[in-house]
Specification:
The structure is a single chain. By secondary structure, this protein is an alpha+beta fold. It has 2 domains: 22-115, OB fold (Dihydrolipoamide Acetyltransferase, E2P) (Beta Barrel), CATH 2.40.50; 149-257, OmpA-like domain (60s Ribosomal Protein L30, Chain: A, 2-Layer Sandwich), CATH 3.30.1330.60. The chain is 19% helix and 33% strand. Strands 1-5-6-4-3-2-7 form a 7-stranded mixed sheet, with no helix packed on it. A 4-stranded mixed sheet has the order 8-13-9-12, covered by helices on one side. A two-stranded antiparallel sheet has the order 10-11.
């Protein structure tokens, strides 16, 4: 009996440890903080008395776009086991959305030797070659196309439209449609919401799904993709928020048919 109790206790401890060790979603709104270093500034945010690392200050080619001083930021991430960076707990993955203006969001911390970073730029030195909608990069070899349709998902920050980070996704859609001589392009815009760690829920503006769908259609047509027939629609209702991967609901789905 004693041995069985010990076995049950050990099993409960293992389950509890696995839950604690799992990545926990951390969603909050805060003022971003810039910490200077000898190499490249890093961005942080404080929530519930704890400091979190968001990203490094790089250019538009970076996978995570830094927030802005003078604006609040929506942070959606998961606490990782990686060592702290610039004094902040690392959120990975992390999704950032610049929100409304807030003049109080102006904190800049001085450089400290203990926070010096080894930074490798994500691209060669020189001006960024990024463009607002479509990347001007050498075309990769195009694989043989066998499916009659292909679906693409374009993701967005909260209440956001197309920006520099969308160049790759839109270019992929454009190249595929040209390769298969697409006859039809269906575009559906979606509106999302996010559940914060404090229990509150943020919902995107009512017309954002319509704006996203119409903008993607406009950009594709503006890139001379005018032969296919376009079907553009959107969902007015916001997707329900769970607090886990809510960013996935902020999207446009593009279906290209041959």
């Amino acid at each position: 009996m004693v041995a069985r109790r010990r076995l049950v206790a050990a099993a409960v401890w293992l389950v509890s440890a696995s839950v604690v060790g799992a990545q926990q979603p951390t969603n909050f709104v805060s003022c971003p903080i810039v910490r200077d270093t000898a190499s490249v500034p890093c961005w942080l945010a404080e929530y519930n008395g704890e400091l979190y690392f968001l990203t490094l200050q790089t250019d538009v080619s970076a996978p995570v776009t830094p927030p802005w001083l003078g604006h609040r930021v929506l942070v959606e991430g998961a606490v990782s086991a990686e060592p702290r960076i610039c004094g902040g707990i690392v959120l990975k993955p992390v999704h950032l959305s610049v929100l409304e203006r807030d003049a109080s969001c102006n904190t800049m911390l001085p450089a400290e030797e203990r926070y010096n970073l080894t930074f490798e730029p994500p691209r060669p030195p020189g001006p960024s070659g990024g463009r607002l909608a479509f990347a001007n990069t050498p075309s990769a070899p195009r694989p043989a196309v066998t499916a009659s349709a292909r679906e693409f998902v374009v993701s967005y920050p909260f209440d956001g439209l197309v920006g520099f980070t969308h160049a790759g996704a839109l270019t992929e859609i454009l190249q595929f449609a040209r390769t298969v001589n697409a006859r039809e392009i269906e575009i559906v815009g979606y509106r999302g919401s996010v559940r914060l760690s404090n229990g509150q829920t943020m919902v995107e503006e009512p017309a954002i799904g319509k704006k996203r769908a119409e903008q993607v259609a406009m950009l594709l047509k503006g890139a001379n993709l005018t032969e296919p027939a376009y079907q553009v629609s959107w969902r007015d209702e916001a997707a329900p928020a769970t607090g886990v991967d809510d960013y996935l609901s902020r999207r446009v789905v593009v279906t290209v048919r041959r």
